[in-house]
Amino acid sequence: MTMSSDSSVEVRLPSRLGFEKIAMSTAASYAKQMGFSEDRIDDLKTAVAEACINAIEHGNQFKPGISMGLVLSMSPGELEVKVLDDGNGLDKPPSPEKPDIDRKMSGEEEARGMGMFLIQALVDEVEWVPRTEGQSFVRLVIRLDKENE
Amino acid sequence: MQTANKVSQQQLTGASGQAVTALRYTGDISSASKEPVVGEYQSLDKATHKFILLDFKGVEYLNSSGIALVIQVLMEANKAGQKISICSLTPHFIKVFTMVGITKYATLYADEAAALATL
């Protein structure tokens, strides 16, 4: 774990399924310290877990020698979480659609593939940033002023 | 790092006298849980197990890959004319299951007692 500043911390985690739970717990600890409610922390935990699973599966393709990065940055009223991987990222910004349960039930759509939708639905801001220099990442933000919305 | 997922079966009776098969999960429900979630459901005789209750009380971690396995169970149950009910999700996962549309094909109950009272 690296402290980048008083308000920022970076963690490197193995690209192995299950380690998203460490990322979840770390982000939850930060959010709790900032005064977020339990239900908002639960939202953040799911969003962080899904972002990490995407990084492990698609970005780093389960390669054991490549780690996934988690950067947490606190600023007044908001918590920013970046999940970094070594993939190229997405060609264009995605606009995840609400899963169509009827299509999933009929087999026309895969049962999987809900992660990006959940991320977008559960946090206040999300941005998928392709690799330019360094690593590609997804950036999630939750804000204290959205607590009661 | 992943907590092993276990499942157990129990035969219950609903308030209307219906036989209800409870599948109780513990631990993590993720992409590694195909056997306990889908496999255990498939081991049930579809002709005799018409009412199935998926109990999440002991679940510590659930992600979208795990939810996809639940959808797979719903798909098969729907084709076989079985009724699936779900109980003991946390308020957060009640919200998530509702967001992804699962409530169209399965009824969510606060706990086992609430489920049995209406089955």
Itemize the secondary structure elements and their pairings:
The complex is a heterodimer of chains A (about 150) and B (about 120).
Chain A lengths: L1 E4 L2 E7 L5 H15 L3 H22 L7 E9 L2 E8 L15 H6 L8 H8 L2 E5 L6 E8 L6
Antiparallel strand pairs in A: 1-2, 2-3, 3-4, 4-6, 5-6
Helix pairs in contact in A: 1-2, 2-4
Chain B lengths: L5 E8 L5 E11 L4 H9 L8 E12 L1 H17 L2 E5 L3 H9 L7 E3 L2 H7 L1
Parallel strand pairs in B: 2-3, 3-4, 4-5
Antiparallel strand pairs in B: 1-2
The assigned structural class of chain A equals: alpha+beta
Sheet bearing the most strands of chain A, described?
A: 6 strands, antiparallel
**CATH topology call of chain B:** Transcription Regulator spoIIAA
Structural category of chain B? alpha/beta
How many β strands of chain B by DSSP?
5
Largest sheet of chain B: 5 strands, mixed
Q: Number of domains in the coordinates of chain B?
A: 1
Number of helices of chain B: 4
β-strand percent of chain B reads: 25-35%
Span of the ends, CA to CA of chain A: 33 Å
- Mean pLDDT, all residues of chain A: 91
Q: Would you give an account of this structure?
A:
The complex is a heterodimer of chains A (149) and B (119). Chain A is built from 4 helices and 6 strands; from the N terminus they run E-E-H-H-E-E-H-H-E-E. Chain A has 149 residues and is of the alpha+beta class. Chain A has helices spanning 20-34, 38-59, 101-106, 115-122; strands spanning 2-5, 8-14, 67-75, 78-85, 125-129, 136-143. Chain A has one domain (2-146): Heat Shock Protein 90 (2-Layer Sandwich), CATH 3.30.565.10. Chain A is globular and about 50 Å long. In chain A, strands 1-2-3-4-6-5 form a 6-stranded antiparallel β-sheet, covered by helices on one side. Chain B has 119 residues and is an alpha/beta fold. Chain B contains 4 helices and 5 strands. Chain B has helices at residues 34-42, 64-80, 91-99, 112-118, and strands at residues 6-13, 19-29, 51-62, 83-87, 107-109. In chain B, strands 1-2-3-4-5 form a 5-stranded mixed β-sheet. The longest helix of chain B is centred in the middle third of the chain and has 17 residues, at 64-80. The model of chain B has no long low-confidence stretch (mean pLDDT 96). The interface between A and B is medium-sized, with 31 and 28 residues.
